[in-house]
Amino acid sequence: MDTTTTTRIKLLKLWKLLCSETDSEHPMSTTDIIHRLSENGVPITRKTLYRDIATLNENGFEVLCDKSQANLYYVASRTFGLSELHILMDALQAAAFIPERKTAALVSKVAGLSGNRSAELLKRNVVRFNVLKTTNEAILYSVNEIITAIEAHKKVVFRYFDYGIEHERVYRRDGHHYIVSPFATVFSDDQYYLLCYDNRFHKMLHYRIDRMDGVSVSEKDAEDPPEDFLFSVSKHRQSLFRMFSGDTRLVTFSADRMLSDVIFDRFGAEVTLKEQDDKTVLFSAEVQVSPTFFGWCAMLGGKLKILSPTEVADRYQAHLNAILACYTDENRKGNEKL
Fold this sequence. Notes:
This protein folds into 4 domains: 3-74, Arc Repressor Mutant, subunit A, CATH 1.10.10.10; 82-124, no CATH class; 139-230; 237-325, Alpha-Beta Plaits (2-Layer Sandwich), CATH 3.30.70. Helices cover 41% and strands 25% of the residues. The chain contains 12 helices and 13 strands. The chain has helices spanning 3-21, 30-39, 46-58, 82-94, 100-112, 116-124, 139-152, 233-239, 260-267, 291-299, 310-325, 329-336; strands at 28-29, 64-66, 72-74, 154-163, 169-171, 178-188, 191-198, 203-208, 212-221, 247-256, 274-275, 280-289, 304-308. Strands 4, 5, 6, 7, 8 and 9 form a 6-stranded antiparallel β-sheet that branches. Strand 4 and strand 5 (169-171) form a beta hairpin. Helix 4 runs antiparallel to helix 5 and helix 5 (100-112) packs across helix 6.
């Protein structure tokens, strides 16, 4: 091995050691560094170590030195701070679309970005959320295939399934493949979705990635949606309710002013609330009208009213009447016989 290659390996080993084993609370002495490098097959002298640390600093790899007692070296600058890493780890724990085993592996990798010492502290403070995780272990592979297809402007092929009463996979379309043009991946309401264009229906569709099986990149080029379909993914997401799509309509509501936080959480800070009286406000928002949207409205009870379009208000009323019809005396008597 030539001298240049040996020097590069030595610098990489030194930087890796300092990143993983030191921080401002745990600096490492010259003697300890020499000993640890020797254990890893990298013999080094004090003079060479000082020169190598200077080389790292000159090239933007900052190594600090505490000279209060002896030369104690450490790496203070990290790509992420501990609080940032903790937030990422909590997000991984709470994400229902990531299987339990993958979650544990990813949490460990994220914690490792802080260095070995801080990583152990972070992992000890991880709170396990009571989240029902997907059992589809292939989801990261599926995401990789989708991203590859988007970058290559190719279609993706997959089968799509629901779960039967015994938690078995029941494939839609009798197990036949779906072939769509991927547009983006979207995280919404604890689930991860593929947003895609299907030219057979001339519309944008959504599929839960954890319900996709055998995802692969097709040899067929992806088809771009018509220009009037091109939109901001974030804006489109605000109009959806749990990714159940429907006709997009501009709906005007009357709401109890106490719902302002709920409204902003659902539609974003850009929505404008106008005072109707001392108890209620008016606002308008684009929504995709679907049963899930009606379910959201019903959850808020009489504190939210659909004012217009009249057709949407009528559909909501019909939705509620259909539910009430399940609780008539006649239906209740029928259920008692079961």
